[in-house]
UniProtKB/TrEMBL annotation:
Record key words, sorted: Cytoplasm
Database matches in Gene3D superfamilies: MTH938-like
Species classification: Bacteria, Bacillati, Actinomycetota, Actinomycetes, Micromonosporales
Full protein name: Mth938-like domain-containing protein
Main location: cytoplasm
Subcellular location per the Swiss-Prot or TrEMBL entry: Cytoplasm
CDD domains: Mth938 (cd05126)
Species in which this protein is naturally found: Virgisporangium ochraceum
A Pfam family the protein falls into: DUF498
Keyword check for S-adenosyl-L-methionine: no
Length: 121
């Protein structure tokens, strides 16, 4: 199993990820990750994280997914996204960003975890 990259730090508008450098929003999965460009799937704060946003995580072997809702919980999660993960048997954790980072790093030690992280509102 490929390791999921560890998040080294998170602060407003900035994340540092081992092996990937710094950025604002990240899409992470076993074996790697990249900056998360919301425009790829038309993601907006509402209705939130789209099913298409999590596909890459699953395609790269994530069996558990962490979704961050932003530092002020303004990013929603489209119910269709949770339904899609459930239908594929993927466990999901949804939390405020700093808590999501904590949960993700903890899971990354033992599980094939993926995550979507939004470092502002």
């Amino acid at each position: 199993m490929a390791d999921s990259p560890r998040i080294e730090s998170v602060s407003w508008g900035r994340m540092e990820v081992a092996g990937l450098g710094t950025g604002k929003d990240f899409k992470l999965y076993p074996g790697g990750g990249r900056e998360w460009d919301w425009n790829e799937t038309g993601t907006r704060h509402s209705p939130g994280i789209q099913p298409g946003d999590v596909e890459e995580l699953i395609d790269n072997g994530a069996t558990v997914v962490v979704l961050s809702r932003g530092m002020e919980l303004r990013l929603e999660v489209d119910p269709a996204t949770l339904q899609a993960l459930d239908a594929r048997g993927v466990a999901v954790h949804v939390a405020e960003t700093t808590e999501a980072v904590r949960v993700y790093n903890e899971l990354a030690a033992t599980r094939a975890v993926g995550g979507l992280f939004h470092s502002t509102c």
